[in-house]
UniProtKB/TrEMBL annotation:
InterPro entries: DHP_synth-like (IPR045031), DHP_synth_dom (IPR006390), Dihydropteroate_synth-like_sf (IPR011005), Pterin-binding_dom (IPR000489). It comes from Neokomagataea tanensis. Keywords: Folate biosynthesis, Magnesium, Metal-binding, Transferase. Residues 1-245 form the Pterin-binding domain. This is dihydropteroate synthase. GO terms for molecular function: dihydropteroate synthase activity; metal ion binding. Pfam families: Pterin_bind. The gene is folP. SUPFAM superfamilies: Dihydropteroate synthetase-like (SSF51717).
Amino acid sequence: MGIVNVTQDSFSDGGRFFDPQAAILHGQELLRAGARIIDVGAESTRPGYQAVDAVQEWQRLAPVLEGLANKDALLSVDTMKADVAHHALQNGAAIVNDVWGLQRDPEMAKVVAEHNALLVAMHNRADVDEALNLKADWKRFFDKTLDIAQNAGIPLSRIALDPGVGFGKTQTQNIQAVRELGILKEEYGLPVLLGLSRKSVLGWITGQPATARLAATIAANIRGMNNGAAILRVHDVQEHIDALKVWAAMDGKYD
């Protein structure tokens, strides 16, 4: 899954693709590099992000989704707002990537169900708790998410889970989320998406700024793949494809 941020304040590339044409060209570059999914977001969710209303968010998204539709791309919309998701699914998107796992906007599950869309449901917390039992909180959160999904008529076969690296967690808990994400696969039998590209936990470990965290990102993502991740959400598609080809070859999985 390649990332296209149509924002001014995303933590690593805010403003670079705020212009719709720049965002479209970037999405096309990610597809040529081998991305299977393009995840387009128009509201940053980094710590301290500046919220935008649904109208403004959709105005940013609309031309980009139009420009990427019918480009052999599976389009995902990264939003926590049901109205935005509804418009996106009407205009080429097939996936809703909800950083609040159906638990922020009460209409989100209905929108996903009505459009027969795919869903990425991410674990999130409003506050950081150093004493948090992450595994127990995952279960509490995802049990609720899947109950909401079931009641709305979203089939389990159309859901992937995201452990929520960087959202409501200490840096130690972020590392734990990668190390133990296989628990989610075992508990729920659903695909796991891992989104940690360039995130602060990698800077915490290496001391590198966001623009210099490619090696750290690849290392963490390979560990995540070894632990059961099925989808990687990344900024740097070609580099990850090269790394994963080597990883698979060394593991006897690539011919």
